[in-house]
Amino acid sequence: MLNDQVAIITGSGRGVGRAVALKMAESGANIIVSDIDEAEAETVVKEIHELGGKAVVFPGDVTEEGFATAIMEKAASTFGGIDILVNNAGYTWDSLIHKMSDEQFQAMLDIHLIAPFRLTRAAAPYMREAAKKEIANGDVKYRKIVNVSSVAGVMGNVGQANYASAKAGLIGLTKTVAKEWGAFNINCNAVAFGLIDTRLTQAKEKGETVNGVSIGIPEKVKKMFQQTIPQQRGGTPEEAAAGIFYLASPLSNYTNGHVLHINGGWYT
Questions:
Q1: Nearest-CA neighbor of 222 among 195, 194, 193, 261?
Q2: Where is the signal peptide (predicted)?
Q3: According to the model, what pLDDT value does residue 77 have?
Q4: Which CATH architecture has domain 6-262?
Q5: Which of the residues in the chain have pLDDT under 50?
Q6: Angle ∠(15,66,163) on CA atoms, nearest 5
Q7: pTM more than 0.70
């Protein structure tokens, strides 16, 4: 379904991003696997090669100056263009509002909103401008941008004023790009995940960190969340990836500016 299309997937060294990369590779796409953890990204590339697919690593921090331009150039020079952009990279840094620092708030804006904006802008020459030439020649080729938002971005969440604000802003960005670039056969949509079983939602007691920030959810809190979900469980990375795949595939050619909720019925 995605034969010979070129996909950039940020945060694809593990979790949902990895599942998306593998699913798209199985469907014929050429993948740029990008993650701040180069070793994890290399492992995913190896998995894709074992499937008979094509993939290369582009390690780095999506919030760094120049990252967006560099990854677009890598995709174009390696595979000849860019058809799919999945803005997936991210982490959480929770605190109640009255205890939250400016640094905490800005960090979530940087990775969940500013980085996707920069990546989308940097994709313009390879998506928007390429489409203009195709349309002038009477050709129609769809390209896709999928932004990973969250249930927190549509209904808020205790302890996540920073994360919820960034994810809500990402929805606004999604809808604006859909309106601005829809005429160029570029669909921009978002997924809003609920509780998905990744290392960001694993037991906080495990003590893992990202960028020096402790990640995870206290086990008791996670169990409480699960009890409020109609399906009584968190989703798997593969279930989350399926929604992203739909929005990146030809199946969604007339879906634009949409937020697809994937949360087991937690928020409807």
A1: 195
A2: none
A3: 98
A4: 3-Layer(aba) Sandwich (3.40)
A5: none
A6: 45
A7: yes
